Structure formats: C-alpha cells, structure tokens
C-alpha cells in the first residue's frame, strides 16, 4: 500500500472530528449564483461567455470540460481572484462582485498544493487560523482536522518529507480548518497517480457530505465528475453546454460535445443520412450499410422525418450494440455487420473495435479531424439576420462535429471510410479473430441523432433505460 494511506479513516473518528469543527457556528453552506457572467482579457476573445449557473447550499457541483474551456476562470471569479467583466455574482442572494476575496468566507484547494515549504503540516493547517486570531489556541482545530483526514502522525513533518497524496491531504486540511462557507477546488487530484486519485476522491466525497459545505469542483476528468458531483456542468469554449445530474448528462446529452466528452469508452459518432420514404421503412444510411428503424416508429423516430436527406450525426454507446446474429434479435433491434479490427481486454470486459464502412464524425476539441472532402465555398447568404442566427447557433452549441461536405453530382457514391469506426463492449470471454465478419445488433431505443450543429434531435426515452452488458 502507498505510504500516503497507512490506514483508512475510521468513520466514528471522522464524524466526531467533523462535529467538533462545525460546532459553535452555523452550518457551513452558501448559495452561489452567476447571471450572464462574462470574462474577457484585454481585446482577446471571451474566456467565459454569458455564463449562468446556480449552486444550492450544501450542493457539490462539478465544472467539467477540456483544458482551456474556462472552468478555472469561473472558479476564480467566484473566489474573487479574477474580476468579472460583465454579469453578476450573487452569494446568498446578495451581489458579491465587489467583496474582496478574503471576506467571501471561501477556501480554495489548488492543483499544486500551495503549501509553505518552511512550515510543518501543523503550521500549514493552522496558518489561516493564525490570520483570524493570532492569540487564539489553534491546536484543537488543527488536531480535529488531522483526525478527520487521518494525518495525525504527519503534523510535525515538512512538505518535502511528504508524498503527493499526503501533501494534498494537508492542503485540504488547511481549507477545512477555516470552517468556510464554500470549498472551491481547482483540479486538486490532477498531480496524483490513479490509485491515489481513487482514495482521495472517496475522502473528498465523505468530507463534503459530512460537513454539509457547498463545493464547486473543477476537473477535466469525467470519472471524477460522475462519481463526485450532485450535478455536473459541462463547459466548452467558455460556454456552458449542459447542467444536470451525472446520470442525466450521460443518458440525455444536450449535444454531441457532451455525448462525446462523457462516457468511457467514448460514444460512437457516425455520419448518417435519414431516408424516410412515405411508402417504405425509415433507414439511417451509414455509407455502406443502413440501420432500419423498426415499425411502428416511436414518437422520437417519427420526428426524424423532417431530417429527410440531411447529413446528421448518429450516436451509439458501446453498450447499445451487442454481438449476435439477426435470428437472435429482440424487439427494437436492427442488424449490422462489422469487421474485427482490434480487441482491448479490460479484465472484467472486452472492447471490440469494428469497421462497419461508416464515416466517423470527429469532435474538434477532443480529437483531430480525419481528412474530409474539400469544403466548397459558401454561396451568398440569405441576409444579415440569417447570418447572425447561424453565428449565434455556432457559438452556443456548434458546429461541434466535423461532417463531410455533400458529394458533388456524379461523384463516386461510395464514401471514404475509416477503420475501427465502432467500439462495442462485450464480455471478457469472447474470442474473435482479427478480420472476421461479425453480426451485430443495434438497440435503436438507445440511439442518438444530432443535427449538423451538434444539437440532439432524437433524444433517449424519458425513462432512463437499463443496458444489457
């Protein structure tokens, strides 16, 4: 076992320490609200654009997104470390943009620990208490915090004598000892290895639940977001994309970016064209194969008729496809065929990469786009108002996925494809030979369709379904 965790924190000791820290004051909780908040550095583009979000007292909210999306900037504006260019910040319903950082009663936990190297752990944890009242006895609160975190034997050591996990726990102790009204955590686990992240993730969840403190947590790791947050707020390019419970953001993504960013393995995104003849079945053309939607069509699939002939993005989670012949199809499943390209053995499961002859739809911020057909120069637009609407739609939700340009008349109707365009989750005992043709069944009830802006046009069922793994 790693030296950062010589033992597990006993729950009775943890609860007693938490009760001591919260005694003698109101419950450590605060409501945080941002209304149309924006941030611009100089004359550059907006780092945060019209950001609106409310955090309830005692809630654990996670800001999730790729590097550079503005999530740390939002956190620093809440803390008062960054000025707000426009919009309003409210704390407990009162305007707070003018309040200095030290008067906001918030504690930050940083990625780089930010411990004083010349101070022991005891002195680092007690440092904010010394600023509050230099003559007060700090030891009771310092020791209660140390018991809560299981670091009593580290109090007399210096940061240079501690491991990364131990230093982060000391940094958390310094924040807890202040008894703040809110925790602001800026990727506190990013510098730790996977095992330590798992241990500290559980400790953070326990701490915040027991203390009842409002927490805003910034991360780019969707596993942290899904396991820690009461709600997850997904950001892209300084714009809030979706806010919801972890289960909802996974099962009901608002757009193709959220669908691609949340979930492991990443959702399969394929380019498709809707064919909806009046006298025949509706199909989704993937290029060399078609998915036939079973009849009678569901209300969601009926709405796809208005997308007739348009190039869209089809989303399939790896658990929505299974390996089975058409004869074993269940109601609502459509057949597909794939060629085995690669298998990843995960121990408890296997991930099989298939080539289906489809064209992937890459998401620009998450991966490099594959070469596509040259995009033709756009013809003159219909007018200023239409151009402004298009620009606004692109800023808010897209374009998120890279779609090939429509084929020119007379061009080869067989599109360029990429290998390994479909990943399927299956059991660990499956044995498949590379290059083998394998029958697949797609559960169309778990099929997502996104328009060319990346917005979801065919949602999952209102009742979140259970997948057969």
TrEMBL record:
Keywords: ATP-binding, Nucleotide-binding, Transport
Domain ABC transporter as annotated: residue spans: 32-262
Keyword presence, ATP-binding: yes
InterPro entries: AAA+_ATPase, ABC_transporter-like_ATP-bd, ABC_transporter-like_CS, ABC_transpr_MalK/UgpC-like, Mo/tungstate-bd_C_term_dom, NA-bd_OB-fold, P-loop_NTPase, Transp-assoc_OB_typ2
Protein origin, superkingdom: Bacteria
Listed SUPFAM superfamilies: MOP-like (SSF50331), P-loop containing nucleoside triphosphate hydrolases (SSF52540)
Pfam families linked: ABC_tran, TOBE_2
Annotated GO MF terms: ATP binding
Protein name as annotated: ABC transporter ATP-binding protein
């Amino acid at each position: 076992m790693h030296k950062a965790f010589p033992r597990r924190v006993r729950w009775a000791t943890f609860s007693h320490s938490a009760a001591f820290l919260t005694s003698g004051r109101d419950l450590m909780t605060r409501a945080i609200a941002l209304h149309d908040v924006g941030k611009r550095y100089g004359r550059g583009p907006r780092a945060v654009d019209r950001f609106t979000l409310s955090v309830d007292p005692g809630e654990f909210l996670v800001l999730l997104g790729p590097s550079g999306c503005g999530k740390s900037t939002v956190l620093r504006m809440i803390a008062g470390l960054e000025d707000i260019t426009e919009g309003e910040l409210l704390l407990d319903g009162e305007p707070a943009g003018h309040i200095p950082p030290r008067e906001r009663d918030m504690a930050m936990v940083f990625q780089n620990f930010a411990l004083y190297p010349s101070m022991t752990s005891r002195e680092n944890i007690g440092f904010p208490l010394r600023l509050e009242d230099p003559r007060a006895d700090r030891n009771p609160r310092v020791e209660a915090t140390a018991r809560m975190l299981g670091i009593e034997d580290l109090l007399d050591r210096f940061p240079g004598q501690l491991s990364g996990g131990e230093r982060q726990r000391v940094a958390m102790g310094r924040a807890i000892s202040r008894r703040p009204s809110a925790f602001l955590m800026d990727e506190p686990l990013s510098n730790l290895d996977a095992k330590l992240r798992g241990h500290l993730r559980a400790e953070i969840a326990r701490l915040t639940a027991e203390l009842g403190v409002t927490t805003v947590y910034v991360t780019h790791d969707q596993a942290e977001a899904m396991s820690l947050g009461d709600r997850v707020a997904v950001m892209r390019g300084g714009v809030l994309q979706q806010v919801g419970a972890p289960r909802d953001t996974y099962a009901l993504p608002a757009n193709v970016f959220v669908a691609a960013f949340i979930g492991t393995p990443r959702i399969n995104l394929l380019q498709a064209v809707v064919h909806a003849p009046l006298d025949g079945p509706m199909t989704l053309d993937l290029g060399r194969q078609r998915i036939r939607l079973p009849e009678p069509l569901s209300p969601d699939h009926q709405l796809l008729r208005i997308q007739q002939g348009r190039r869209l993005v089809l989303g399939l989670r790896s658990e929505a496809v299974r390996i089975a012949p058409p004869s074993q199809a269940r109601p609502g499943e459509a057949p597909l065929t794939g060629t085995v390209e690669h298998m990843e053995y995960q121990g408890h499961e296997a991930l099989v990469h298939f080539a289906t002859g489809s064209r992937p739809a890459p998401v620009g911020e998450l991966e490099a786009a594959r070469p596509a057909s040259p995009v033709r120069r756009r013809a003159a637009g219909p007018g200023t108002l239409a151009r402004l609407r298009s620009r606004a739609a692109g800023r808010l939700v897209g374009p998120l996925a890279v779609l090939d340009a429509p084929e020119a008349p007379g061009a080869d109707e067989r599109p360029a494809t990429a290998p390994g365009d479909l990943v399927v989750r299956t059991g660990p005992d499956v044995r498949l030979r590379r290059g083998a043709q394998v029958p697949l069944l797609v559960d169309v009830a778990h099929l997502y369709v996104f328009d060319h802006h990346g917005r979801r046009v065919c949602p999952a069922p209102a009742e979140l379904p259970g997948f057969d793994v």
